[in-house]
């Protein structure tokens, strides 16, 4: 009988082996599906980038100019609009179009995405449609959009009517210049570690449900004359059935996982299902690699049976663990903090250091479990505590195995709950203008005409507000210090800027400190400074909050002759007006509109993406950890059926044994989760210091840091509750069966 036939015969006659095989296959399926999904994320962002790169401002790809292009951002109802203003300088039919764009818009024509088209018809024209100053002649297909609901407008112009910041270009940026999102690629790498390790722990726990029985069976075969190769073949066949079936099931489940992920927003929108497609070669390699790894682990686990079959049958005393294992933690922690403190460390090195820090738990955890067992054996007198302590002493590696996934989940949760509040505390800034002010940037030559156009549009729509020019110049002192100053009438400054100021009776200069003796130059300070007119008064201004970034203002009447701003903002307060109508008036010229609200919305979008990914990862890790802990506890009962059967036959109550098994799970989990929580917090602090290096910000620690430890311990204890049904099953079966 060949090994495969023998493996199937064992599966037919042994229900415990069938259960172990089914759970192992499910564990391999989960691991395979998660790996396929996570590895597909960089490909998904690459597909997104290839579809939408034509929307970005980028260098010309040829020597001949074929069109003028301006790219700007706008918002409607808090949702971003990507706007492209185009003008052809050659025959438009000769310009290669990106996939999904039906035609090159002629002057006065507009192409929009389907979602923007629907929104334009759902809102009054002066709130949205009038921003594009043209007739909609077509829609963009999904092949031209970053994500399905993206709002995009392509507006056609003559070259003379283009926005001031238009670029000369030889054509649209080709798709092969697109690059995957590096940040999501890093998160995918972290996700592989965070979710793959608990999945493999689940596989290992499932395969050990019948570990003791399998060892006895294989040892008997070795003693009966089976060669090492035959024994290895039998195990490879038994494990291969589960591993191959699990890998194929994981491959079949991956499309379902991808379909679920299409509903998870990232960078402003969701995904197309086709984004998660991967090259066939990569998919095949990953599907083949998972069973190979499982088979390799199973074969390496046969060393004791192959070398010493008598010892496998009769049992053995494990070697005591040495305290040198504790060195793994400070060594890996040192490598990690060297990585995060180095200014030139690569992301790969930081991820490797983080992986080593996580992996150190495999080395340190069993010793901690051994130390907990020694404490209970030496100082505890209740039967359940003594039984649990003896188990922890006799097999610390096996006892820790049930807690390994929980420890990783606690580490990840603590690290995330250190990073997220810290990142949230850095949100803000962008405080030149008040929250209610919208602004666009123009040139001094165009500013006057732009103000007139905006004021006329506002008056036409009945909005009681007006546009104001805000220039920028540089004030320089004799000692070389420079202060950026905004050129704006003091009477309007408080309504527009995040400052408080007491205006003088005549044109003056105002700053946070005395500006007497300063000279004035253009906005970049590149021209020679010109002294302020004689007798120009100075005053002080007070920022309204810590986000304000206004250092000084100067009345236009105090500006020396010959000094001109390099750029001009045109600002409109929306107090008492409809912000969407004001935005329409500003956007009609194709300029990017700035408002602090949208600046903060962008930050919150990024934070929401991180928060969402973190929650998904931690919840998945916790579920996998709980399953592996439950299976490991059940496997522990199955491995010791003889011992538990003898104890029950001797009169030991099931409740005492159940309590001992719960203590086996809870005691090492308590020590390990506390340690994992502290190390996760330290890792979070290290990563935050690396990301925010050079900034005057500090990490934020909240009481929520205790949550992963408490939940981790709860998951371990809850998972250990499966021991009671397992013990009752042992009690119901005759002891002679073993």
Describe this structure in words.
Belongs to the ABC-4 integral membrane protein family. It comes from Amycolatopsis acidicola. It holds the Pfam family FtsX. Keywords: Cell membrane, Membrane, Transmembrane, Transmembrane helix. Helices cover 54% and strands 12% of the residues. The protein is an alpha+beta fold and 738 residues long. The protein folds into 4 domains: 190 residues, no CATH class; 116 residues, no CATH class; 208 residues, no CATH class; 158 residues, no CATH class. Strands 7, 8, 9, 10, 11, 12, 13, 14, 15, 16 and 17 form an 11-stranded mixed beta sheet that branches. The chain has a 6-stranded mixed beta sheet with strand order 4-3-5-2-1-6. α3 links the parallel β3 and β4. α2 crosses α6, α17 runs parallel beside α20 and α19 runs antiparallel to α21. The two termini are 25 Å apart.
DSSP E strands, number: 17
User: What characterizes the major β-sheet?
Assistant: 11 strands, mixed
Low-confidence residue ranges:
none
N-to-C span: 25 Å
Protein structure class: alpha+beta
Compact overview of the structure:
The chain is 54% helix and 12% strand. It has 738 residues and is of the alpha+beta class.
Topology (SSEs and partners):
Blueprint: H1 3-13, H2 15-52, E1 67-76, E2 79-88, E3 109-112, H3 114-122, E4 135-139, E5 151-156, E6 167-169, H4 182-207, H5 211-223, H6 228-261, H7 280-300, H8 303-307, H9 309-314, H10 328-341, H11 347-379, H12 383-394, H13 396-425, E7 437-442, H14 444-460, E8 468-476, E9 482-487, H15 490-496, E10 499-501, E11 509-511, E12 519-521, E13 530-531, E14 538-543, E15 552-554, E16 568-573, H16 579-587, E17 593-594, H17 596-639, H18 641-649, H19 654-691, H20 706-720, H21 723-732
Parallel strand pairs: 2-5, 3-4, 9-15, 11-14
Antiparallel strand pairs: 1-2, 1-6, 3-5, 7-16, 7-17, 8-9, 8-12, 8-16, 10-14, 11-15, 12-13
Helix pairs in contact: 1-2, 1-6, 2-4, 2-6, 2-7, 4-13, 4-17, 6-7, 10-11, 10-19, 11-12, 11-13, 11-19, 12-13, 12-19, 13-17, 13-19, 13-20, 14-16, 17-20, 17-21, 19-20, 19-21
């Amino acid at each position: 009988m060949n090994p495969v036939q023998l493996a199937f015969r064992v599966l037919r006659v042994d229900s415990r082996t069938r259960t172990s095989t089914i759970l192992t296959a499910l564990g391999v399926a989960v691991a395979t599906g998660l790996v396929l999904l996570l590895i597909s994320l960089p490909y998904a962002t690459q597909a997104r980038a290839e579809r939408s790169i034509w929307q970005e401002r980028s260098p010309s790809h040829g020597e001949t100019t074929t069109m003028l292009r301006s790219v700007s951002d706008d918002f409607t109802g808090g949702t971003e609009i990507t706007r492209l203003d185009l003008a052809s300088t050659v025959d438009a039919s000769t310009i290669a179009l990106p996939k999904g764009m039906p035609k090159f818009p002629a002057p006065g024509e507009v192409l929009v995405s389907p979602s923007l088209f629907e929104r334009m018809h759902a809102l009054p024209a002066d709130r949205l449609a009038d921003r594009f100053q043209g007739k909609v002649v077509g829609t963009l297909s999904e092949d031209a959009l970053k994500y399905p609901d993206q709002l995009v407008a392509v507006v056609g112009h003559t070259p003379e009517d283009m926005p001031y910041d238009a670029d000369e270009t030889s054509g649209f940026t080709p798709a092969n210049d697109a690059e995957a999102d590096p940040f999501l690629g890093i998160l995918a790498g972290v996700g592989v570690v965070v979710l793959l390790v608990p999945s493999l722990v689940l596989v290992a726990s499932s395969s050990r449900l019948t570990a003791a029985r399998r060892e006895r069976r294989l040892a008997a075969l070795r003693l009966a004359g089976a060669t090492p190769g035959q024994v290895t073949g039998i195990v490879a066949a038994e494990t291969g059935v589960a591993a191959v079936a699990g890998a194929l099931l994981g491959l079949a489940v991956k499309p379902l996982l991808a379909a679920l992920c299409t509903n998870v927003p990232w960078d402003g929108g969701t995904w197309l299902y086709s984004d998660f497609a991967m090259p066939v070669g990569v998919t095949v390699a990953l599907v083949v690699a998972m069973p190979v790894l499982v088979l390799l682990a199973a074969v390496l686990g046969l060393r004791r049976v192959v070398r010493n079959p008598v010892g496998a049958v009769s049992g053995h005393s494990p070697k005591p663990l040495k305290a040198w294992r504790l060195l793994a933690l400070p060594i890996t922690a040192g490598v990690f903090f060297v990585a995060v403190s180095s200014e030139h460390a690569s992301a790969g090195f930081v991820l490797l250091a983080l992986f080593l820090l996580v992996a150190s738990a495999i080395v340190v955890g069993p010793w901690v479990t051994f130390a907990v067992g020694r404490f209970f054996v030496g100082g505890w007198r209740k039967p359940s505590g003594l039984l649990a302590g003896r188990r922890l002493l006799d097999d610390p590696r096996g006892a820790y195995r049930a807690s390994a996934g929980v420890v990783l989940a606690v580490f990840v949760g603590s690290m995330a709950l250190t990073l997220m509040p810290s990142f949230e505390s850095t949100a803000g800034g962008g405080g030149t203008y008040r929250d209610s002010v919208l602004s666009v940037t123009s040139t001094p030559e165009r500013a006057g005409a732009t103000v007139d156009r905006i004021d006329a549009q506002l008056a036409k729509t009945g909005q009681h507000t007006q546009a104001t020019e805000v220039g920028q110049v540089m004030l320089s002192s004799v000692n070389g210090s420079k202060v950026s100053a905004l050129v704006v009438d003091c009477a309007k400054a408080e309504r527009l800027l995040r400052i408080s100021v007491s205006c003088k009776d005549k044109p003056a200069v105002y700053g946070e400190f005395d500006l007497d003796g300063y000279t004035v130059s253009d906005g970049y300070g590149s021209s020679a400074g010109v002294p302020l007119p004689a007798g120009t008064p100075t005053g002080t201004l007070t920022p309204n909050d810590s986000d304000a970034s206004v250092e000084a203002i100067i009345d236009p009447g105090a500006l020396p002759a010959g000094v001109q701003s390099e750029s001009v903002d045109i600002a409109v307060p929306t107090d008492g007006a409809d912000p969407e109508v004001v935005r329409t008036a500003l956007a009609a010229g194709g300029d990017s509109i700035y408002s602090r609200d949208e600046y903060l919305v962008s930050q919150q979008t990024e934070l929401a993406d991180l928060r969402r990914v973190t929650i998904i990862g931690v919840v998945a890790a916790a579920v996998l950890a709980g399953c592996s802990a439950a299976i490991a506890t059940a496997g522990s009962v199955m491995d010791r059926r003889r011992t538990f059967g003898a104890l029950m036959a001797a009169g030991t109550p099931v409740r005492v044994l159940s309590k001992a098994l719960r203590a086996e799970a809870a005691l090492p989990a308590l020590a390990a989760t506390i340690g994992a929580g502290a190390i996760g917090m330290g890792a979070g602090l290290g990563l935050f210091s690396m990301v925010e290096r050079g900034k005057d910000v500090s990490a934020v620690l909240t009481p929520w840091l205790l949550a992963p430890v408490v939940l981790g311990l709860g998951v371990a204890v809850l998972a250990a509750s499966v021991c009671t049904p397992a013990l009752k099953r042992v009690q119901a079966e005759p002891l002679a069966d073993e």
